[in-house]
Design a protein that fits this description.
alpha/beta; about 20% strand; six-stranded parallel sheet; about 575 residues
Length: about 575
């Protein structure tokens, strides 16, 4: 008798092969049979008419704090993800000295929009070194998780207050110490280290992330830490990728490390075609160094949700709104429901020096009704401006009324990146390249504005079923390969991502006809009652981790087979023999 048998499903095995009908048997957390399984299972799942696929591997999340209090790691686990990688963008919470905790919280709060009070109260802080941190989080969870060593925490730990100054340079002794700590972290189980050279990344006080202007010497010194360990990968984000000197930086880093790198790539409105030359440049460096360099790209636009109880909305800079901003949500909605309050707001203009806030408040041709289910490729007719023109009212009134829907919980959608042409054509082109993988979902982060942990579901539904032009759809077997085998390979987790005998039994049973990312909602379920955007999904019949069913139709079964993944994982011996 097998531990688990999934019967009669259409197996999409993660390799890109044509789907086929087969049973899947699992024993001891490993797939043992894919084919005809005559034996019974202690647990059986009828997958007739369903897809049976590997669990998704999400390599770009920020669960560094949440992992200490949330055994489910939602929302990612609700979207078929069975392994997450955190510690991206150079931010995290180890190594750390007690007096540095508040600063690291400020950095994470500013960069990733995770409330500081939630982090301060939610984490136990029973660690100092990065190996200590790994030991502290190595507890049962619903899904697997892995960590990277963040540059911001490392720099501050070694350099003290000078580490928070992005213009400071480490001494030779400090550089040696940082290099050794990189090697120590990887030897203890870190998948690698991450850094950020983005001016967008700031502390909650507005200070630039300390690694913004890190020198070539500092970055190659950290890379030598990976070379010393003989393992690990590099997660890299930079505002300067369009400058020749930055490609030279990348080349010097991977040459020093002799380890793979992945780089975040998005399309901006200001340079809508630049992403192509960036990926071409990275491909040239990769070929020269004979080391893999992969672009992390998003399966849809990167955009923010707008609403009265979120971090952003079109009226946040209106003078009359200032008196309402700090009221409890229920009381604020009562006030906003009053006709005289609405009239006063609609009669005003926004007052802000922020270009971003001005765009939110005035560029209504780029703000859309989200829809239910969410429409992540809205057209011009779906914009607030278009609806206002059809209705004969002002765009601000349309936006106001849309957010007042559902008792003041209505949401608008503002795509910021990957939507320069008002469509996702560039995203499709990014996904189609062999030197990219789908990523950038930021699970656990941007609690008050973004819920992109649903990217895996959008990847399958939008690009495998729902696109308005059927000629632009991708084969479902190719899409699943992209978010399983391909993402796992980028971070060296070669023991998962395939529905084949010998591989780890991380699986999804999917009702593809019903599959859908649900409408986002605001919850107050973080420590201290902290707020976050949550997005569930419909159509995941079962999600299996290490052979145990952890979710059925979106409900947790109580099983917690997930563990910290320490270091890379080779192809299972049973496969290589």
């Amino acid at each position: 008798m097998h531990d688990l048998v999934i019967r009669g499903g259409t197996v999409v095995d993660g390799t890109g092969s044509v789907p086929r009908r087969a049973d899947v048997a699992v024993d001891g957390g490993t797939i043992t049979v894919v084919g005809v399984v005559p034996e019974a299972g202690r647990r059986e799942i009828d997958a007739s008419g369903k897809l049976v696929a590997p669990g998704f591997v999400d390599i770009h999340t920020h669960y560094d704090g949440q992992v200490t209090w949330d055994t489910l790691l939602t929302p990612s686990s609700l979207h078929g993800v069975t392994t997450v990688v955190m510690g991206n963008c150079g931010v995290g919470f180890a190594p750390v000295k007690p007096e540095q905790r508040d600063w690291l919280i400020s950095l994470m709060e500013g960069v990733e929009d995770i409330p500081g009070s939630v982090l301060a109260e939610g984490m136990s802080w029973n660690w100092e070194s990065f190996p200590d941190y790994l030991d502290a989080i190595d507890t049962p969870h619903a899904i697997d998780f892995a960590a990277q060593l963040p540059h911001g925490a490392l720099r501050t730990y070694v350099m003290g207050e000078r580490g928070g100054d992005h213009l400071a340079r480490p001494t030779d002794a400090e550089m040696d110490r940082m290099r050794d700590l990189v090697a120590e972290a990887v030897e203890a189980g870190a998948l690698g280290w991450s850094t950020s050279r983005s001016a967008v990344h700031k502390t909650s006080a507005g200070e630039p992330t300390p690694s913004l202007t890190a020198s070539r010497e500092e970055l190659t010194g950290l890379a030598h830490g990976l070379a010393k360990a003989g393992a690990g990968v590099i997660d890299f984000i930079s505002d300067f990728m369009d400058e020749p000197e930055e490609m030279e930086f990348v080349s010097a880093i991977v040459e020093a490390a002799q380890r793979p790198m992945s780089v975040s790539i998005v399309q901006s409105d200001r340079a809508p075609d630049k992403w192509r030359s960036l990926l071409d440049g990275l491909a040239e460096v990769s070929a020269q160094q004979n080391i893999p360099i992969t672009g992390q790209v998003a399966p849809r636009a990167v955009g923010v949700m707008l609403g009265w109880e979120l971090s952003w909305h079109p009226f946040m800079a209106y003078p009359s709104y200032a008196a309402l901003a700090d009221l409890p949500r229920e009381e604020r909605v009562v006030q906003l429901s009053r006709p005289e309050v609405k009239a006063a707001l609609l009669a005003e203009n926004p007052v802000s020096d922020s270009e971003f806030v001005q765009r939110l408040s005035t560029k209504f041709e780029s703000v859309y009704l989200l829809g239910d289910p969410p429409n992540y490729e809205p057209g011009p007719n779906d914009s607030v401006a278009a609806l206002a023109e059809r209705s004969g009212v002002s765009p601000v009134e349309v936006a106001y009324d849309a957010m007042m829907a559902q008792d003041g919980r209505g949401l608008l959608y503002f795509p910021m990146l990957n939507y320069a042409g008002g469509n996702l054509d560039a995203v499709r082109e990014m996904l189609a390249r062999p030197d990219t993988v789908p990523a950038l979902g930021d699970g656990g982060a941007h609690c008050g504005a973004i819920c992109d942990a649903s990217f895996p579901t959008t990847l399958l539904t939008h690009w495998g079923r729902d696109h308005r032009n059927p000629e632009l759809l991708f084969p479902i077997e190719w899409l699943i390969k992209r978010h399983t085998v391909d993402t796992a390979a980028v971070v060296g987790l070669l023991d998962r991502g395939q529905v084949l005998p010998g591989y780890r039994a991380d699986l999804n049973v999917i009702d593809f006809d019903r599959l859908q990312a649900d409408h986002p909602e605001v919850l107050y379920d973080l420590p201290t009652g902290g707020r976050r955007l949550m997005q569930t999904a419909t159509g995941y019949v079962a999600t299996v981790v290490a052979g145990e069913v952890v979710f059925e139709e979106g409900e947790h079964t109580g099983a917690l087979p997930g563990r910290l993944v320490r270091g890379s994982r080779p192809i299972p011996e049973s496969i290589t023999r």
